[in-house]
Amino acid sequence: MNDYVNLEKCLDYQFKNKDLIVEALTHKSFKKPYNNERLEFLGDAVLNLIVGEYLYKKFPQSNEGDLSKIRASLVNETGFTKLANEIKLGDYIYLSIAEERNKGRTKASILSDAFESIMGAIYLESGLETLKPIILTLLEKSYDKINLDVLFSDYKTALQEITQAEFGSIPDYKIEGSYGPDHKKEFEVSIWINNQCYGQAIGKSKKLAQQAVAKIALDKLKG
C-alpha cells in the first residue's frame, strides 16, 4: 500500500477512516471492488460551492458573469491538476501497471479526478468547515493572484504549448473590431492556427478577449 503520511501533512489533515483515503486514491484501472469515481462526483460539487463562496466574498464589486468566468478558470481539469501537483498527489494514486507505464501519474485527467476525490473524502468525513480552509490554503499557494487577467493567461499558455507540439506554430490573434464608448469599450478578437480560424470572442480588453478566444480554441483542439 502507498504511504500517504506525507500527503496528509501537505493537506494538514489526518484521515480518521483510512479506508476512505485509500478509496479516494484508487483509480478505476487498479481493478478493486471500489474506485474513486463516486468521491470524485461529490468533490466536484463541493469544490464548486466553496470556490463560489470564496469568489463571492473576495470580489464584492464583480458581477455574476465575471464571477462565473473566474470560477470556471479555477474549477476545471487544469485548475485541479495545478492544485494536485501542489500536494504531489500523483505520487500516491493507485494505478494499474498498464496505466503506470502510460504515465498515468502525470495525466491531467487522473490527477484532477483524484484531487476531487480527496476533497470529497475530507468533506464526507469532516464536513464543509474543515474542508474549506484546506482548499483556500491550496488556492492561495498555487496562484500569486486570483483575478480575470491572471487566471485567463493559463488558456493562452496551454494553447500555445499544444499548437507548438502539434503544428509547430503559435496562434495568431487578430482584432476584428471594437465597440462602445471609450470608458466602456469591448474588443472582438479572432484566433487563427495554421491559417484556419478557430473562433471569435469579445472582452472588456484586448487581453481578456484573447484569453476568452484561446479557451474556445483550446476546447476545440481537445474535443
UniProtKB/TrEMBL annotation:
UniProt EC number: 3.1.26.3
Domain DRBM: 154-223
Catalytic residues as annotated in Swiss-Prot or TrEMBL: 44, 116
A cellular-component GO term for this protein: cytoplasm
Single GO molecular function: rRNA binding
Pfam family, one: dsrm
Residues that, per the record, bind Mg(2+): 40, 113, 116
Catalytic activity: Endonucleolytic cleavage to 5'-phosphomonoester
Record key words, sorted: Cytoplasm, Endonuclease, Hydrolase, Magnesium, Metal-binding, mRNA processing, Nuclease, RNA-binding, rRNA processing, rRNA-binding, tRNA processing
Coarse class of the protein's main subcellular location: cytoplasm
BP GO annotations: mRNA processing; rRNA processing; tRNA processing
Cofactor(s) listed: Mg(2+)
Subunit (UniProt): Homodimer.
Function according to Swiss-Prot or TrEMBL: Digests double-stranded RNA. Involved in the processing of primary rRNA transcript to yield the immediate precursors to the large and small rRNAs (23S and 16S). Processes some mRNAs, and tRNAs when they are encoded in the rRNA operon. Processes pre-crRNA and tracrRNA of type II CRISPR loci if present in the organism.
Family the entry assigns: Belongs to the ribonuclease III family.
Name listed for the protein in its UniProt record: Ribonuclease 3
The species this protein was found in: Arcobacter nitrofigilis (strain ATCC 33309 / DSM 7299 / CCUG 15893 / LMG 7604 / NCTC 12251 / CI)
The encoding gene: rnc
